[in-house]
């Protein structure tokens, strides 16, 4: 792990580490473990002895009604899965720099971070998705992060691109995720290259096993799901926003009803008419359909794999198939970042942690163990991909994907686009007319929000 001494002005001479894990209570409970001291050798030895004798703090969660920061020099907010791993590195950071560090769990991180920061109670560092970025910058809640070119080059290019807004870097990435095609290899041993291949295999599997009731398990639901809609549009060159010359998404150019996107919408309508996709399959039951052996194919992400394994399903992961008349469906990429608050109590400490701890192989590997998403750091990815075929499979399925739009205008897209897809799948509307209406609604929503 990278170790670098900080200036005395940024540090306290003697400190405690407040550790926080996951818990159901919103109350604040903490105890101290003394960290290393930079003042003198004797004081450092004393601090180490205290650390050995101390008990780790009880689990702690940010109170939803009073999202106050912990009493520490550096405070990090994360989700319950990653907080335990972060406490290990918080301990190391505190020991090396002689500071107090607290890791807290925020159940609704995005909202709690915004609310707490407005009143000066927020954390110094927050862990969150890259698509929050535009909104966070717009609200003035995150600070630019000076990641040098040599360090940035160690990450997957898409992860670095997702960390930027208007050309400025605001985050340090640690994982990349995307959806792919997961298949039950007992029902469908071969990965289909095309949608026609998929349907042929699915129908053959159903003929052998009457338990199969869904040919292609994809979350749709009554109100739709724009995240899963996008790949169908992408196969024909469609999407949501056009790109600017610099590669950023252009909120002034919505392309939901472009000719290319309409071709994707027509495919969705056909899938609905042929009983391949259904609004009766949604986020609440899609995973259970696959783990229950009722579908040979499932479009999902890494988050479903633990339950698939638990169910004893033999599975394979492959890229999304190509569509007739188009190319392969491409998923959105989701990148997880470490952000630094614009209201950080100790910005120097925060910048030190995210620029010198997060971009290390050791740290990225630890975060992978906590979340199961491929690391954003190339060196860490290569190591886990060599040992875990799933990691390589997820990467291959998303290598040509684009980061999900991180501009504030994306908040105006989810509902209208999702509902449009659901309506054409259900046969309630013709694709062009329905996507024309969705386009108008999205544009109106963007203007209203601006």
Number of domains: 2
**What is the number of E strands?**
16
- How many angstroms separate the termini? 44 Å
Low-confidence stretches: 1-59
List the total number of helices. Answer: 17
Global geometry: globular
Classified by CATH, the class of the largest domain is: Alpha Beta
Question: Which structural class do the helices and strands define?
Answer: alpha/beta
What proportion of the residues is helical, as a percent range? 25-40%
Largest sheet: 6 strands, mixed
CATH arch. level architecture of the largest domain = 3-Layer(aba) Sandwich
Question: If you consult CATH, what is the topology of the largest domain?
Answer: D-Maltodextrin-Binding Protein, domain 2
Multimeric state? single chain
Supply the CATH superfamily name of the largest domain: Periplasmic binding protein-like II
Supply Rg: 24 Å
Notable features of this structure?
single chain; 450 residues; alpha/beta; D-Maltodextrin-Binding Protein, domain 2; 2 domains; six-stranded mixed β-sheet; four-stranded mixed β-sheet; disordered N terminus
Short synopsis of the structure:
This protein is of the alpha/beta class. The protein has two domains: 8-177 and 334-393, D-Maltodextrin-Binding Protein, domain 2 (3-Layer(aba) Sandwich), CATH 3.40.190; 180-330 and 413-449, Periplasmic binding protein-like II (D-Maltodextrin-Binding Protein, domain 2), CATH 3.40.190. Helix content is 39%, strand content 14%.
